[in-house]
Amino acid sequence: MSYNAAKDEAGQRIRDAKERAGLTWSQIAEAIDQPREWTISALLGMHPVPEAAATTVGEMLGLDDDTIRALQRQPYRPGLGELANDPTIYRFTEAIAVYGAAIKEIIHEDFGDGIMSAIDFDVRVTRREHPKGDRIVITFDGKYLTYPPRD
């Protein structure tokens, strides 16, 4: 089994075990004292999970030792590939395609020549009621990183 396959399989096992246990992602996140968004991403294979948190999740969900170890590994993060076919993921790529250049201009105008960190970074997903239909509010909160001066 390849490195990524083990993490992918662990993510599937976690989804199944979570459903069997009748737990929510929020309950699991609370148990390991992490944000819900990070917890989901990590448990589905996109972040290494610290040993204590992996053990806690393993106990909560009745996971085997191989799955708990797989959670702790550093992932390989591939491109979107077939994932881009998912309507939710596609909409994010579409939003960045449409607004990415504008966001970049705003960052440069308000902060200078730099980028937003995706390492020192938080993401929040919330629901907001609206007369035209509930809204999904997504907040990306990343540290500003200035580029070094160019010669």
Automatic annotation (TrEMBL):
EC number: 4.2.1.104
Gene3D superfamilies the record matches: Cyanate lyase, C-terminal domain (3.30.1160.10), lambda repressor-like DNA-binding domains (1.10.260.40)
InterPro entries from the UniProt entry: Cyanase (IPR008076), Cyanate_lyase_C (IPR003712), Cyanate_lyase_C_sf (IPR036581), CYNS_N (IPR048564), Lambda_DNA-bd_dom_sf (IPR010982)
Catalytic reaction equation(s): cyanate + hydrogencarbonate + 3 H(+) = NH4(+) + 2 CO2
Enzyme class: lyase
UniProt GO molecular function: cyanate hydratase activity; DNA binding
Keywords: Lyase
SUPFAM superfamilies: Cyanase C-terminal domain (SSF55234), lambda repressor-like DNA-binding domains (SSF47413)
NCBIfam families documented for this protein: cynS (TIGR00673), PRK02866.1 (NF002773)
PANTHER family: CYANATE HYDRATASE
Family, similarity comment: Belongs to the cyanase family.
The name this protein goes by in its record: Cyanate hydratase
Record lineage: Bacteria, Bacillati, Actinomycetota, Actinomycetes, Propionibacteriales
